[in-house]
Design brief:
The chain is of the alpha+beta class. The chain has two domains: 139 residues, YNR034W-A-like (Profilin-like, 3-Layer(aba) Sandwich), CATH 3.40.1840; 155 residues, 2-Layer Sandwich (Heat Shock Protein 90), CATH 3.30.565.10. Helices cover 54% and strands 19% of the residues. The chain is built from ten helices and twelve strands. Strands 2-1-5-4-3 form a five-stranded antiparallel β-sheet, sandwiched between helices. Helix 1 runs antiparallel to helix 3 and helix 4 runs parallel beside helix 9. The chain is elongated.
């Protein structure tokens, strides 16, 4: 599919470029031809205006100089005189043939393509002057122009072919990445759902077994309930991620007190940290306001706190800090634990990505940080992770509201 998309992109560019070149070269050819014809006719009219002084050097026509000759006829079309120094005018049969064609033509100015000549007929009663100009140089100029246009067009098409290939690769790259992410997302989601579904099916079959006693049935029912809750949690996470991707709640953004929000988010986690043998400390500056969604930003704080709860070294201390920066505020959650590799730091916000150590932990789907990233980006902020000296720290930077903006 992506190859077809690239091909269509390149083909569309080449068709557009070809059409543009044809129009441009066609206009150049047309105007050049019209200009050459106009200059030729102007020269012939100047010659026809002084037919009897063509041999005088000081009376030669100005402007372009094309090979020409003149035929002067009487009242009845008889040839009276000839003039012009470019042609051999001794062949009277040839001259009378040209004279007949030009004399009986309905147009004052015309072309004799069989003879490669253009004529201009001027009547000065009782005589008539017919000027014939050679079209060879004009035709040669147009032929050279066609060759030049074809050469330039061919080189331009090759150049645009190379450019369009690069542009196609660049333009399709986001689509390719999105397609690959979608495929990976479907594969990971299927993998995550496969295990609980297998457990549910197995226990459902055991429940239908005729030799199952009450204790076995209660155990099977409990397993089905546990796996169903786990699947529901995964589906809810997927829905949260879909909502974060769509940015559906952007219109609900309003000024809010981030300091109060973070302090409130810490309260339900204090007993959880205590039960896990961890210490939760916080340093939250007061009066920090941002514009956003209360529910979404609270979810970001909860995701970071839950992540620290799961992956901190037992007995360690998790530190939550919220402070001001120049025009921004910075929220950080630092926890002791096994150092994250550069690869983990780069990929940890991807969907379903989990470090190997965390794969067997319950209710960890690898979606929380991806949801947090989507929410932060929708709030025009940044989120990243750092790992050094035995501490893993997650940072969230958001635009802070000024004192004047808080009142609105």
């Amino acid at each position: 599919m992506l190859k077809r998309l690239r091909f269509k992109f390149v083909a569309a560019i080449l068709v557009i470029v070809t059409a543009m070149l044809c129009v441009i070269f066609g206009l150049v050819y047309h105007f050049t031809s019209q200009s050459l014809e106009a200059e030729s006719i102007q020269m012939m009219e100047e010659v026809a205006a002084n037919p009897f002084r063509l041999g005088t050097p000081e009376e030669t026509p100005s402007g372009v100089r094309l090979p020409y000759f003149t035929l002067i006829t009487g009242p009845h079309g008889e040839l009276i005189a000839t003039g012009g120094g470019y042609y051999d005018l001794s062949d009277e049969d040839f001259l009378r043939e040209l004279l007949t064609v030009a004399f009986y033509s309905d147009e004052e100015v015309g072309a004799l393509k069989d003879y490669n000549l253009r004529f201009c007929r001027v009547t000065a009663s009782p005589y008539q002057c017919i000027v014939f100009a050679d079209m060879s140089s004009e035709q040669a100029t147009l032929n050279n122009l066609v060759k030049t246009c074809l050469l330039i067009g061919g080189v331009s098409l090759l150049l645009f072919l190379g450019i369009s290939l690069l542009l196609a690769r660049w333009a399709v790259k986001p689509v390719e990445q999105a397609w690959e992410q979608q495929r990976q997302f479907v594969a990971d989601a299927s993998h995550e759902l496969k295990t609980p579904l297998t457990v549910i099916l197995t226990n459902a079959e055991l429940l239908q077994a005729p030799d199952s006693d009450d204790a076995a049935k209660r155990q099977c029912s409990a397993s089905i309930l546990t796996m169903s809750r786990q699947m529901r949690g995964l589906v809810e996470r997927l829905l949260e991620l879909a909502r974060a991707d769509s940015g559906a709640s952007r219109t609900a953004f309003a000024p809010l007190d981030l300091s109060e929000l973070v302090s409130d988010a810490l309260l339900p986690f204090e007993p959880l940290y205590f039960e896990a043998g961890l210490t939760l400390e916080s340093r939250v500056d007061g009066g920090i306001a941002v514009r956003g969604s209360d529910a979404q930003l609270r979810q970001v704080a909860e995701i970071l706190l839950d992540n620290a709860l799961k992956y901190s070294t037992p007995g360690g201390t998790v530190t939550v800090t919220l402070g001001r920066q120049s025009g921004h505020c910075l929220l950080s959650v630092a926890s002791p634990g096994e150092a994250l590799s550069p690869k983990d730091l780069k990929n940890i916000f991807q969907r379903f990505y989990r470090v190997d150590k965390a794969r067997n932990m319950n209710h960890s789907y690898g979606l929380g940080l991806s949801i947090a990233e989507r929410i932060v980006l929708s709030h025009r902020g940044k989120i990243w992770a750092e790992s050094e000296h035995g501490w893993n720290t997650f940072f969230v930077q958001l635009p802070a509201l000024s004192a004047a903006a808080k009142s609105h």
